[in-house]
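Much of what follows relies on a compact textual record of a protein's fold. With that in mind, consider the following protein and its fold in token form.
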Amino acid sequence: MKLVLQIMGLTAASLLGLPVLALAAGATETTLNLTSHWVGYAALVIFVVAYALVMAEEFTHLRKSKPVLLAAGLIWGMIAWLYASNGMPHAAEVAVRHNVLEYAELMLFLLVAMTYINALEERLVFETLRVRLVCGGFSLRKLFWITGLLAFFISPIADNLTTALLMCAVILAIGRDNTKFVSLACINVVVGANAGGAFSPFGDITTLMVWQKGIVDFWGFFALFIPSVVNWLVPALIMSFAVPNAQPTACEMNIKMKRGAWIVMGLFLLTICTAVSFHNFLHLPPMLGMMTGLAYLKIYGFYLKKTWATRGSGRKIRFDPDKAQEELGDTVPFDIFRNIARAEWDTLMFFYGVILCVGGLGFIGYLAMASHVMYTGWGATPANIMVGILSAIVDNIPVMFAVLTMNPEMSRGQWLLVTLTAGVGGSLLSIGSAAGVGLMGQARGMYTFFSHLKWSWAIALGYVASIYVHFLVNASKF
């Protein structure tokens, strides 16, 4: 009788729009099921509006971090107010602290990676590579393949946006007068950069989140190498037949890397090894290894700064009296804090807003509902394929964070599948990844949403082929 009365009471509360108390599995604290409460509906509306503004950034010029930061504050503010009014003033606080911890690990990891990328850029590593490609005497068709291949292999270390912008600079320098070549080469670079990032823990935010969560170990991601190659190679082969085989104008190379560039590259590799070792052998967060690696760069930066002196002419030269000569273009001492300041802070703030927003929706109960519909109703494979398609419309970061928050029961093969689809699904549309959005701005008028859409069918073939190959070569993981 008591059980019947409890059920009747919960039903009445639900019909009246009041929050329902539900015991979390294995926990002693109660949580409120707000999925049918006005706070839940308001949180959904706020998130949708905020993300619509994120997607419209190219047209509104409103930086994407601003709407999601506001949305995160509003969502958690409403949740905390409702919980406090129901006699649970600290429940929301505990949940927020959990989300902030997840963000802090991701943010510190990315901050170090961005600092190294900026240091390599400041030492003219990327500019030297660009000039070598531009002045290499390659035909447009060869450059189509070279830029795509480099995008595929650079993005596992650098992020896909930096890689794509670098390759696009090469493409524009060579074929600015050939709109068809620029369009096709940019599509190829976007697909290559996204595919290359899918098989490396460092290549994409989605793979980084999966690795930091401990779901897939560092070496486990390399099982996606062959599916990632297929994902890039299929559309590249199809598009290559449409690339004009003209010869660009020759040029002379007159640039070289700054002093210490090779050592900075070596320190970046050592930093990656430190992060992997901390995680695999010491069971510490990878972020701690990356921050230790930042110390390597800061100490070496101190050496670079102290081995230069200002003389009467104001030029920066080495202390070595036998080699007291000015380095070409190296007229300012190395400043590590300038490289830290040049990190993509808008992107880092965007991650904060997204993680807090999605965490709030999960705390309300919507992610549990979505997990039940997708992973219980549809099954793991259709759900993971749909995740990739969704990431072509919505950024893959909130999509992947939602999946990780749901934490459905899946095999290792299925976790690798969702990592693959979330990473490469954004290539289906130009707005589906940071690389695509960045290139639309850099190659404005030549690489557009519709020029990309024209070849989406070929990219979709690569998407399907990569999934098939994953099931084929990684069958033992399912």
